[in-house]
Every structure is written in C-alpha cells, then in structure tokens.
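User: Quick sanity check before I run a bigger batch. Here is a single chain. Can you write out its predicted 3D structure?
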Amino acid sequence: MTFRALLLCAFLTSSLFSQTKPAAGFQTDAFRTGANEFQIWSGYSPDSLTWIGKSEARRLFMAGAGWRRVMLATDGFAWKFTVDIVPVALVSQPTFNGGETVQDPNRIFAGCTSCSGSIGRRTTYGVGFAPVGFEFNFRRKRRIQPIANINAGLLRFTREVPVANSAAINFTFSWGTGVQIFTTEARSVILGYRFHHISNANSGTPFNPGIDSNFMYLGYCFHK
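Assistant: Done. Predicted structure follows.
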C-alpha cells in the first residue's frame, strides 16, 4: 500500500506541475537570505542495503513535514538550516511464523535457511524528528535547482527495531541529493534520494545491526 501511495503522490505532483508551468525566463528569489520554506514530504525504500547497517530485507516508509530557513544566499547557491518532524515511520521486517524477527547474534539474515515453516513480514510503527540538518540549493534563482542535504535525528518505534533485544528508540542520519522544481514563484516540488541510516548507536543493548535504506521521496514546498 505504501508503494501505491507513493506512486499516487508522484502522479498528483506531475499533474500539478504540468498545470502550473511557469513562463519562459522565469526566475525566483524564494531563497533570499532570511526566507522561509515549509515542506510536506513522503518517501519509500523497497529494500535495505548492508553498508553501515547489517539488517537485510527491511522496507521503510516515512511521511513528514519540515521547515527550512535560508541562512546565506549568493547569486549561485542558498544554504538552509532544516528541521523535520516524522509523524509516520513504518519499518517492514521479515519474521518467522509471524513471530520475532529471525536473527543470528553475529549477522541479521533476510530469512532462516535452517528453520522450518514460513517466513512472513511484520510492520512496526514509529514517530520521530530530525532537529538538525542543512540543505544547499544550486542555481538558486532558476526554475530547476539541484539540491544536496544532510540531517540527523531519532525515531521511536512501538517495538524493538530492527530485531529483538536491540532498541525501540533509534538514532538516524541521512544525506542525499535531488532536484527542486518551481511551479510558481512561491510553490515548488522536490524529487529526491537519500541514503538513510537507522541504529541505536550501541546504547546499552546487545544488538545494534542498523538499517540502511535507499530512500526515494517527493516533497511539496511553500515559500515565504
């Protein structure tokens, strides 16, 4: 369902963009020093990779809202401070017979080859925020602007994630890139990618396998 919701968001965003295409020669001063940006966004990662985190076959959906403040603007770029809240975070994890996530103390497997029975999935709900982040817009007066960003925060889940005996509270950080497209002088859409990491930072628990995600997201922005 989350993937279908993301596709629906993409369709609605593209429809909005096609209906409000700015005139040729369009320029914006939305990212002048001291300007504010308010954003709503959602995204999805269909699988997990094993780089910093070692958990396999995890899926991540998040939806949230954010505030950006332009700290510095030049003719070529804008530097923004960012804050995000995440009222919806869903992690889908592999389970054995609908129970606890299959695990080995030394490695977190996507399945269990030595077990009999069926492998299923279970979704865990969480909320969180990212109170510290930075975003850079390049070609800041143009209709289409490349962006780069980084942020850090935490997520609290209703059970331990990504395995039992890890933690319900996890820290996060991410960095990524994308493109911001202005539909009017005060509205824009974002298509982006982030490498997103979740872990408990060895906060007194036996396991800290972590989750690494290729997180693809869409955002809609209001500028003041």
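Strands lie at 36-45, 48-49, 59-73, 77-96, 119-138, 144-157, 169-184, 187-199, 211-223.

User: Great, the batch can go ahead then.
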